[in-house]
Amino acid sequence: MTTRTRTLAALSLLSVAANLGAAPSVYPTGVTRYDTATAYNSYVIFSGQDKNTHLIDMNGNEVHRWNAEGFPPVLLDPALTGGKRGHVLVQLASTTGTSNEGNGLRNQAIGELDWNSNVIWQWGAAGGAQDAYAAPVEGKASSQVPGGSAKQHHDWRRLPNGNTLVLANLVHPVAGFAAPQVLDDVIYEVTPGGDIVWKWVASDHLNEFGFKPESLKLVKNGYSPRGKAAPFDYLHINNMSVLGPNRWFDAGDQRFNPENILIDSREANFIVILDKQTGKVVWSLGPDYPAQVRGPRVLPRPVDQIVGQHDAHLIEPGLPGAGHILVFDNQGEAGYPRVSVGVQPRSRVLEIDPITKQIVWEYTGGDSNGPEWSFYSSFISSARRLPNGNTLIDEGMNGRIFQVTSKGDIAWEYVSPYFAPTPVAGAGKPVLSNWLYRAQPVPYNWVPEGTPRSEKAVTPPEPGKFRVATN
């Protein structure tokens, strides 16, 4: 039975009317719509709740699987792997337990797998570091890794020089904080041999993030919602990207040096650029914004209230909007003080000019002829610009990945079938969910030649009508 037939059969069994707005069209799973005239064709990679990493085609067929999960999985550009295709960054080992969901304290080891899941490089408690692109590395024990485990969370990036930037957690006391222990964020640059050659710690730059005195007092006096014994996750940095080549630096703006690093803080609602040489903040947005005005939206306009954002990054050269910041604005409660999301919470995807700090494009559920709350993920999620001007969006809370055109029309939509028990939003007990952290578009030429793919249109039923599958 094809993916499309399974989807239509599920529709008839569930007797659920399809909604052509921004909400998922069909449950339980699969590709629910695919307009071949407007969609951009690529593979998509993500880690499901089954703890595997999946590569799917435009019809939702799994064309490859790695038996490891990534937070997130990153399929590497062959330009970074010596021309080898299908290499992915994933987590290789973790301790059991759920007390630190969303961070890296249970993450013991990270690494790079090839297409056949052979370990090409690893770093962490699983045995130090090794690199398949150079001579064998000897004597790299886990002592090279701070605390003996990777503690990577939320992001990592392979650099052109072969090193890997790793966003990780660091638990330690910080002077001036009421909490005995802080769950800090740290960035390491790790060589293929496992040595740390650059390090950045967030708390060293606390006065550079733009907090007002009264807000900084709230930060320092805060405690973990899990109690005073748990380390205080005061920033929860959930994204780290390297700027890469961009038109701002080409025009002479040193803040946008291609080696500089962009991060964002979910708990504090800010996006900043770090100077790679000094570690200092050289550009910032937030943590304070003007309130959003409900009603007709005028573009461009100054950036208004962002809350709990994810996946901020510069759009790459050659893509529509190159040099602008693309960010998934979750509108999930966060901030010092906390920002209310209102009676009708909804998420947004924002494209921001970093020089004028104005919104130049945005997407909400209303752009797909649905209520704005029909597109909402209060945590996780991502958005990536595609070569034809579409945007690939991961509405992570609902396990939904979809493409929208610049006008907001949905060109492709997929709902993850990988449900499993998770403690997230379980009120103290595991519940079934298909949530997924991030989705990455993968060009066809990044995987081995001969990898199958399907590009058959999928038309959703008209609103309020049912379609019964036939054999």
Automatic annotation (TrEMBL):
InterPro entries: Arylsulfate_ST, Arylsulfotransferase_bact, Quinoprotein_ADH-like_sf
Family annotation (Pfam families): Arylsulfotrans (PF05935)
First and last residue of the signal peptide: 1-22
PANTHER family given in the database record: ASST-DOMAIN-CONTAINING PROTEIN, PQQ ENZYME REPEAT PROTEIN-RELATED
Molecular function in Gene Ontology: aryl sulfotransferase activity
Region of interest: Disordered: 449-471
UniProt entry tagged with the keyword Metal-binding: no
Official protein name in the record: ArsR family transcriptional regulator
UniProt KW keywords: Signal
